[in-house]
Amino acid sequence: TLTTLDLDSNKIGVKGAEDLANALQINKTLTTIDLRFNEIGAKGTKYLAKALQINKVTTILVLHSPHFTSSFTQALSTLNILGNEIGDKGVEYLANALQINKTLTTLELTLNEIGNQGAKHLANALQINETLTTLGLARNEIGAEGAGYLANALQINKTLTTFNIYWNDVGAKGAQDLANALQINKTLTTLDISWSDIGAKGAQHLANGLQTNTTLTILNLYYNKIGDPGAQDLANALKTNKVTTIFVVLSLRFT
């Protein structure tokens, strides 16, 4: 019995998506479909979205295409649209869906030209969504402002455990906002803000957050130019924080 269908990079187009959608409406066994790089466009997405409203078995759809609708997410647990240049507008569509979605647990949005406005859309969704556990926003265009929006959401969100925002221009101010969130958040276990130019000041802010946080186990600060002062502040924080100790030390790189 077929449970997994991999159509990655086959250029099935709109017609192929329509044929697949027709099959999905009666299929009862398929659980995973990979449709990366298939040029199905908005029209093809519409066919598949309609099928997924009927098919409740297909739970994981990996769709590398900037065209999707909120109805698409109703039967998904994992959505990976890495490297599709969806921008802030695409994120807005996703964020609207997240506010009502009850199944998605992993959302990967690395390399999608997402800026501060897109981060704001996601932050609004995170304050409402109760199922997402992993969010990847690496290598986008999120600055301190966007990091602030997301940090505020983390103070309210109670399900996210892994948050990757590395290789964004978070800076010291963004690190400060994230540190404030760590003082309140009780669910986040992994935070990756490597390559984000937080500097010694940002490390100091994070050290303050770690002194009261009791749940974070992995903090990645790779390539952030925190220097000796930042390293010292973090070392002092680890005297009181007994949870993050090993992982923070292993992931630091001082330049």
TrEMBL record:
Signal peptide: none annotated. Pfam families: LRR_6. It comes from the Eukaryota. Keywords: Repeat. This is Uncharacterized protein.
